[in-house]
Amino acid sequence: xxxxxxxxxxxxxxxxxxxxxxxxxxxxxxxxxxxxxxxxxxxxxxxxxxxxxxxxxxxxxxxxxxxxxxxxxxxxxxxxxxxxxxxxxxxxxxxxxxxxxxxxxxxxxxxxxxxxxxxxxxxxxxxxxxxxxxxxxxxxxxxxxxxxxx
Length: 150
Prior knowledge:
This protein has 150 residues and is an alpha+beta fold. The protein folds into two domains: 2-111; 113-150. The protein contains three helices and twelve strands; from the N terminus they run βββββββββββαβαα. The chain has helices at 92-95, 113-130, 134-143; strands spanning 2-3, 9-13, 19-25, 28-31, 40-45, 52-57, 60-65, 68-69, 73-74, 78-83, 86-90, 107-111. The strands form three sheets. Strands 5, 6, 7, 8 and 9 form a five-stranded antiparallel beta sheet that branches. The protein has a four-stranded antiparallel beta sheet with strand order 1-2-3-4, with no helix packed on it. A hairpin with a 2-residue loop joins strand 7 (60-65) and strand 8 (68-69). Helix 2 runs antiparallel to helix 3. The radius of gyration is 17 Å and the shape is globular. It starts with a strand and ends in a 7-residue tail after the last helix. This is IFT121 second beta-propeller domain-containing protein. InterPro entries: Beta-prop_IFT121_2nd, Ift122/121. Pfam families: Beta-prop_WDR35_2nd. It comes from Panagrolaimus superbus.
């Protein structure tokens, strides 16, 4: 269980490895609709962005902004930190074999700048569609193509 940097959203991984988000408001807590992930075993909120969290699904790192998950990145590490658009992971199973003298290559810094650019692109496409600007949205999506936009 973990709170975001503004204490407005709670992330929970159940004993069955089900990941859910909850919005915390003055009038109570509410589960975030249409968002649930299975096989999640680790998570860490971005220290600066209240709507962005890194999660580990099996052997893949996913960054979720709002309720939109970016393309997964293969990774076998535990999440140490998530700040300045960088997720740091460490492969603990190998560190524990030789904790006093482990290979520093077991620590990975994964930059999520590309993922954040994708989120901005997706948000812009959604804004154009919500405003009823279908032809503009079509041109924008063609210029910024990604499978999730189609």
